[in-house]
TrEMBL record:
Record bears the keyword Ribonucleoprotein: no
Highest taxon of source: Bacteria
PANTHER family for this protein: FORMAMIDOPYRIMIDINE-DNA GLYCOSYLASE (PTHR22993:SF9)
Database matches in Gene3D superfamilies: 1.10.8.50, MutM-like, N-terminal (3.20.190.10)
Annotated Pfam families: Fapy_DNA_glyco (PF01149), H2TH (PF06831)
Name of the featured protein: Endonuclease
Residues covered by the Formamidopyrimidine-DNA glycosylase catalytic domain: 2-91
Protein family membership: Belongs to the FPG family.
Catalytic reaction equation(s): Hydrolysis of DNA containing ring-opened 7-methylguanine residues, releasing 2,6-diamino-4-hydroxy-5-(N-methyl)formamidopyrimidine
Originating organism: Chryseobacterium flavum
């Protein structure tokens, strides 16, 4: 599943179409495409792993899910996987194997934009309040909770927890104040590092524990385990990452 930084890069790829009028709209997403024709793409907004194409009378929400993809100016996959195609005077954007849904413009105002770790509106204080409100939540679930850390995915989760030396099955309510602050700070810091490395095509070279087999700090074999409610893969060192219970 693409994480927040990858969605920012997608937004940048689509940005040249802002200000242009839709001339054609098609695809097998289950909503009427005809109303999009003739509308101007006013802006593109991202919220974590979601993208909103904002038009004059409606918005379209794109979520790439686990295996979604997109292309610009060139259709690259069979029609059966094409959820939405939007053609503009200078080219087109295509979305495949993903969730595409219409959204009311009023619904955008209900989104908690302060939860997006890559947003200028990001509020670490609000994140702390949400974490303290559920002290029994384990930290691997907390980091993956899109209501708290919108845009954080499994890679960021694993790397952040190694950075701050916290075991993924620790309880948020048992973290010392310093570690809680580090959790919040590094969720944002690593997301921006991820974005920079993704632009450089060097992301995987910087992974310390994600998909790795040995700890870069002590050389001990890393634990690979499905953790949390979502049973997502965690990679961690039992020696260097403390379990707070």
């Amino acid at each position: 599943m693409p994480e927040g930084p990858s969605i920012i890069l997608m937004k940048e790829s689509l940005q040249p179409f802002v200000g242009q009028i839709v001339t054609e709209a098609s695809g097998n997403a289950k909503f009427e495409k005809e109303p999009l024709i003739g509308q101007t793409l006013l802006e593109i907004r991202t919220f974590g792993k979601q993208t909103y194409l904002v038009f004059e009378r409606m918005a379209v929400r794109i979520h790439l899910l686990m295996f979604g993809s997109y292309s610009v100016d060139e259709q690259t996959k069979p029609d059966k996987s094409l959820r939405l195609s939007l053609i503009f005077p200078t080219g087109g954007m295509y979305f495949y194997t993903c969730s595409v849904k219409p959204a009311e413009l009023e619904a955008l105002s209900a989104i908690d934009w302060e939860a997006d770790v890559l947003s200028n509106q990001w509020s670490p204080e609000k994140a702390k309040q949400k974490l303290k409100a559920d002290p029994e939540m384990i930290v691997c679930d907390a980091l993956m909770d899109q209501n708290i850390f919108s845009g954080v995915g499994n890679i960021i989760k694993n790397e952040v927890l190694f950075r701050i030396r916290v075991h993924p099955e620790s309880l948020t309510g048992k973290l010392p104040a310093k570690k809680l602050n580090e959790l919040i700070t590094e969720a944002r810091n690593y997301s921006f590092d991820f974005l920079e490395w993704k632009r450089e095509f060097t992301l995987k070279k910087h992974w310390l524990v994600h998909t790795r087999s040995t700890c870069p700090a002590c050389g001990q074999k890393l634990i690979k385990k499905q953790t949390g409610k979502g049973k997502r893969r965690s990679f961690y060192c039992e020696k260097d990452q403390k379990l707070y219970l």
